[in-house]
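Input for the complex:
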Amino acid sequence: MVLLLAILVLLPLFWIALTSVHDDAKVFTLAHYRQLVVDPAFVRPLWTTLWTSAAVGVACIIAAAPMAWLVSRTDLPGKRWWRTLILASFVTPPFIGAFAWVLLGGPNAGLINQSYYALAGLKPFEAASLINIFSAWGMVFVMALYTFPYVFTFAANALDAIPSDLEEASAILGAPPWRTALHVTLPLALPAFLGGFIVAFLQSMTLFGTPAILALPAGIDTMTTKIWSLFQYPPQLGLAAAASLPLLIITVALLRAQSAIMGKRGYSVIGGKSGSAGKAIHLGGWKIPALALFVFVLGCSIVLPYGVLGRTAFVRNWSAPLAGNLSLEHWRFVFFEFSQTRLALQNTFVLGITAATAGTLLVTLVGYLSLRKLVWGHRYLALLATAPVAIPGIVLAVGLFLSYTHPPLVLYGTLSIIFLAYVTKELPVGYQQIASSLRAVHPELEDASRILGATRLRALFDITSPLIRNGVIATWIFIFIGSIRELSATILLFTARTKTVSVTMFDLRESNDWGPIAVLSITMLVITFVMIAIIHRFTDARLK
Amino acid sequence: MRSARFSALCAALFACVVTTSSMGQETTPTMVAAAAKEGKVVWYTAVDVKVAEAVAKAFRAEYPDIALEVERAGSERVFQRITQEFASGIKNVDVVNSSDASHFLLWKQQKLLARHTPPDVQRFATQYKDPDGYYAVWRASLSVMGYNTKLVSPQEAPTGYLDLLDPKWKGKLVKSHPGYSGTSLTGTYAITKLLGWEYLEKLSKQGVQQLQSTTAPPKSIASGERAVMVDGNEYNMFIEIGAKSPVKIVYAKEGTPFVTSPTAIFVDAPHPNAARVLQNFLYTAKSQQLLVNEGGLRSVHPDVKEPADRTPLKDIKLLVDDPVAMLPQIAEIKKRYTALFGN
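Predicted:
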């Protein structure tokens, strides 16, 4: 078991390390690393990646921290709706959001800018646009729209865990609500905000689709697009491997920083919820700006993008007015003419189902063995299962490509290599999910059954499995959703036979075929939301 | 057992035909039956995805028992994918079409191509086919300039490449990428030969929006996202004009790159008979006329008629492609271009 996980996780890293220090003639060299440090073609993308990711992190905190406080502490109207919409932006594939924002925020034809020009009586090109999505800041904006839910969840969970007595004490001593929030709640929740910042930073740093869609047209590279370009002909695998390393190091360092921050501060006060449920703070006149914040953030991440995709799918020319423009031609093209649709949907489903099934089995087994301490090395099991969190998708793909394009095991060109990528990538999420279900089942229950004469297997099937059933289903769907939207690893691993819907959409983007892209986006979103509906039927567990 | 013997027979027959390769290789009922047994044919092409699917539709109508799978990407991307697949021992592609004619020189050198002369190709002018019968020009197009007529008036429209350096075009230009598109690469080679790299250096300071495929800039100016395209497929412009989009073609006064786009069969094609059926089909006068009428392409087939509203090639100053001279410079062109314009 330990060995299996070790191969899955460590082999790709081993090949990255090996390839990065060898030249094409397989002679040892540090030239790749030298080029990484001195060549502006690498230094610039790294710098862009760092500052844009930091900007996304800050933007997420600025938006999501007040949102979390408003939802958990005040009498903000429509809380359930807001939570549902935040969940929706959490599951919206970021590259679909980026596609939609091209149609909304393209400086001249983008629908928002068109309305702006019309309202202000200006003409495109003669005046500056309201938004230019094809820029580093445009990319930061769109990344933040689909990353803030992580920060929101972190912050909301932290706020829920802070006992209300402290805040009540402050209120009793006469502090107005804003003062309590600033001097009591904020310091207590700060570690969670910092943790959220780090998660947002890492999310943005590892995205491939959004920078490829929004930054490349402006001639801006990030590390992920740079690594991808090194795979174009003639491939420079040594450089690609070396370029993967900074991403890996930053991720590991930040994750360590995160656990240090979250581990040390604040949480000593959090010991079960005591006191009364706490009275919701009355917003009064502040309701308007509070609601405006939610309307702005969720309007930009859900309402406008979904709207523009729906519009684009049903019109002939996406930038023209609706009148006389309605058409089903893109649906007909995608589902009856485009010969890749069937193969891509089939591949996506086969991968989603197999990766989810295998991944769930694996993490359930690993979770059970390691939490019940049943085998040698159970500590390493948990460590290995959560280690891929530190491997960005594109880096994992570089490693898998290097591991499986030569004997003994040639997997490149088959679905297996993409399957391996998905299972590995989803291990940590699956493991967390299943571990929390397993922890809730006390071993005493199994012990009781065994005292009464049941074998371990019998106890497992009769006692434990029914109790963790919902957790297992949730894990399966989590991995499934994560797999069908995967782009950053797939983009290096697919071949013509093994295309998925996500890379098919990416190919269509290179020829500006927005209509078919919109149709495929809607298809993907529908599948995702059907799966989420199923999750909700089976469990009450809130996502993350 | 029977099918093994059958394919052995086919192979023997095929070998006979190959030895007399100057003759065209007609699509015979036996070939179609063998192709139907293979079930499908895989075609990697750089032509616009909707044009490719229109061709595929016509093929399926004629040969309902042979499934045609289309894999479309830019020529340079197609080349990269095939190279990567072959390097990993993956045999998936049967027939390939690329707008970077130098790819065929390389593949022929590496003995990756199968010899096959579709009957119609015998009548093509010699400069449009390989003397040894490995490939022939399937389609041709021009890499043209163009503009959106709602955003730019005919008087102020650029007439040539150097006009684009005028500060008034800053932030209004859109361009395809030679690292992705064979047409763009062929055009970049022609233009740097004509105007030098200084031209592209100056152009790169004009806030050019960088797209990938040469099929994309015509769509971009049609949507009004950009006003003027530096390069794009003439055929996509014809398609846009046919759809009443507000765009107009400019044939630059310095000359317009003429880009030929051959097709060939790979020697290791997993569906060799279906590949031949497809290859023959692609060059028939009917298919070629379809490319011209619906796809806006130029054809080198002697029987094909150009629609009256298109400027005849003889009236355009052409920069004819030279794959042999371009081949050794490709890596350098891509590198220098990327340094100026990004990926």
